[in-house]
Amino acid sequence: MKLKELIENRYSVRAYLPQAVEKEKIDYILECARLAPSACNNQPWKFYIVRSETVISKIRESYGREWFKTAPMYIVVCKDVSISWKRSASDNKDFGDVDTAITAEHICLAAAEIGLGTCWVCNFNPDLLAQALDLSAKLEPIAIFPLGYIDTDKSIAAEKKRKPLSETGEWI
Ligand SMILES: Cc1cc2nc3c(=O)[nH]c(=O)nc-3n(C[C@H](O)[C@H](O)[C@H](O)COP(=O)(O)O)c2cc1C
Q1: What is the CATH number assigned to the segment(s) 17-150?
Q2: N or C: which end of the chain has fewer CB within 10 A?
Q3: CA 52, 49, 62: angle at the middle one, nearest 5?
């Protein structure tokens, strides 16, 4: 699949089948995530691949939507603030959120490429999620990705509503 076709096909999936995801498929997605670029190549991320029922139920408490519970597993992407690159020569801006967003989008695109569904989830309770994963202070949870086979009876790709480039692009 061409990249543009993959980007067009990917959408936020909010209904999953209970079927488990094969280990090779999870490994493929994680390898795509691992290869993401990052500021200064610091790779300030940590991935939690959550398949344990105990942790799954705690993660579901951090984001209580019914659809979210249908996923058979989750990948949580965290930022390691102790190693993320800061623009210390000027404003000290921390680029860890940018880096983790890039690796996270690799997860989404890789999942879509191999026929799996996922959805960015950031509207979780960060304290509950940190407790669920027993995170140390240096790790900030950035996004949860439910991962699984798409329940195509309940999940339909919506029309891509995006602003036109005439509004968001400026040729100078
Ligand atoms: C940073 C980020 C955070 C998001 N958080 C949530 C969320 O908490 N819950 C949710 O249902 N969708 C969430 N989404 C999904 C967006 O609503 C979705 O990507 C957007 O509406 C475009 O739809 P599409 O992904 O189907 O193209 C998030 C997306 C991004 C990029």
Answers
A1: 3.40.109.10
A2: C
A3: 70
